[in-house]
Amino acid sequence: MIPRISKGDNTMATYNRSQFKLGDVADMAAGLTGLSGLGFSIINQHGSPLLSIVYTTEGEAKSAHKIITAALANAIAVSA
Fold first, then answer.
1. What does the longest C-alpha to C-alpha distance in the chain come to?
2. Over the stretch 38-54, which tens digit does the pLDDT of each residue have?
3. How far apart are CA 62 and CA 17, in angstroms?
4. Which of 11, 52, 58, 77 has the highest CB neighbour count under 10 A?
5. Residue 18, SS3?
6. Does residue 35 contact residue 54 with C-beta atoms inside 8 Å?
7. Structural domain boundaries in the chain
8. pLDDT at 1 over 70
9. Left, alpha or beta for 72 (phi > 0: left; psi -120 to 50: alpha)?
10. Is 13 helix (H, G, I), strand (E, B) or coil?
């Protein structure tokens, strides 16, 4: 069972370190905006995205991916 964090009407699921990972930089659509670019996702243990970030250039996407890789390196949980 995935624990939930609640504050008011907002409920977020919390994933421990074994339940999430950072996906690779790839071509992506930006949700329902009709825009596309390069980006990556933080995905859960089932491969479903918890958060996706899309950039217009490969350089921006790779730079952000490197920074988020470092930010998640010692994270014990992600809430989404």
1. 39
2. 999 999 999 999 999 99
3. 22
4. 52
5. helix
6. yes
7. 4-79
8. no
9. alpha
10. strand
Here the tokens at position 70 are 């470092």
d(CA 31, CA 47): 17
**The token pair that represents 62 in the structure block:** 């790779």
Copy the structure tokens of residue 14: 């919390």
The rounded distance, in Å, linking the Cα atoms of 23 and 50 is 11
Element (H, E) at 4: strand 4-7
67: which 2 tokens? 């920074």
15 by Cβ neighbours in 10 Å (0-12 / 13-18 / 19+) ranks as buried
Of the two residues 7 and 10, the one the predictor is more confident about is 10
How much is the pLDDT for 54? 94
